Amino acid sequence: MSAATLAPAGAERTKTRLLEFVKRHGPQTAQDLAQRLDVSVPAARRHLCDLQDQGLLEARTERPGGRGRPQHVFALTDRGEAAFPKTYSSLCVDVLRHIEGLFGAGAVLKVLDARNAEIADRLRTDLPAGLPLGERVQILVQRLNEHGFDATAAQDDQGRWVFTQRNCPNLTVARQYAQLCSAEITLYTEVLGVPVMRDTRIACGQACCHYRVG
């Protein structure tokens, strides 16, 4: 979701303006935001609560200028920051293109494999082999959601675990470098300790990435 994709009318327009103001000027109090947006303080608080519920803002207690009485301010979360346009994906594509040009196509996969090895090391703590497979799948899905994949897990009619990613945070890169998706399968197979198969892929124009486990 981006700030620009919020509904353009009424309350949603006010929420968009609120997010944009916090982005430009940093953490703000409800009173400051109400004054800037020309709405009542209770109305500003309602919008702030809605944006907190969406994970776009967080409340903090700060001292203005490092001194004075503490006050409650509202700041963008990582998800809120991600709501605004970034050039990270185009930068990543450029870097991978240069790696491929300098060292060959195989070098891209080596880079992605090295990255996945580092991620796998971090995940092993959360996914010990002694846990039942279903618990490991659900923990993996939780970790994916922390990184914006909008994932869910369930068991199919045969009792086999499946999981779905309804968003691809790396879509721009994945569309140009299929190696990213290949490395992803390798990572999931390694951390779950069983084969993982992908049936559909967002990078190929399908609605989601759907995986069968085991």
Characterise this structure.
This protein has 214 residues and is of the alpha+beta class. The protein folds into two domains: 3-82, Arc Repressor Mutant, subunit A (Orthogonal Bundle); 90-213, Muramoyl-pentapeptide Carboxypeptidase, domain 2 (2-Layer Sandwich), CATH 3.30.1380. It is 52% helix and 15% strand. A four-stranded antiparallel beta sheet has the order 3-4-6-5, covered by helices on one side. A two-stranded antiparallel ribbon has the order 1-2. The chain is globular and about 55 Å long. Pfam families: MarR_2. InterPro entries: ArsR-like_HTH, Carb_Metab_HTH_regulators, HTH_ArsR_DNA-bd_dom, HTH_MarR-typ, WH-like_DNA-bd_sf, WH_DNA-bd_sf. This is Transcriptional regulator. Residues 5-89 form the HTH arsR-type domain.
